[in-house]
Amino acid sequence: MANWCVINCSNSYYKLQRWMQSFCEVHNSTKEHCSCQKPFDLLPFPNEKQADTRKTWIRNVNRNDSQNVWIPKSHSRICTVHFADGKPTLKNPYPTLVVGHNDLKTARKPSQNRKKHRYFKNSGPGHHSS
Ligand SMILES: [Zn+2]
Ligand SMILES: [Zn+2]
Fold this sequence. Notes:
This protein is an alpha+beta fold. It has helices at about 15-20, 50-60, 105, and strands spanning about 25, 30, 40-45, 75-80.
């Protein structure tokens, strides 16, 4: 089986391979050999030595409503799109943009249709009483 990312994420090693083998018209070579930035990278989970980090990753990746706690296998990967900085950094070492929680789809809604609250004031603007 392909190394899938977390639940609901369609990124996989297979997808990355496909991208690598696709042709880059900018650099006139396959993307494997050009300097284009990968759309994502697949990272292994932290090992047991980094128990705390590992725990947080697992917690973030798991679905809220999951009954069984999911444990990453040795081949389990998470892609870098789930990190706020595009990769684990000191500031954002954990996957926070995790699709496993099922709410990413709704989170992508444009916030345009948010209703504006209007306040009708009785006193006109620029009215000063001193
Ligand atoms: Zn390129
Ligand atoms: Zn992913």
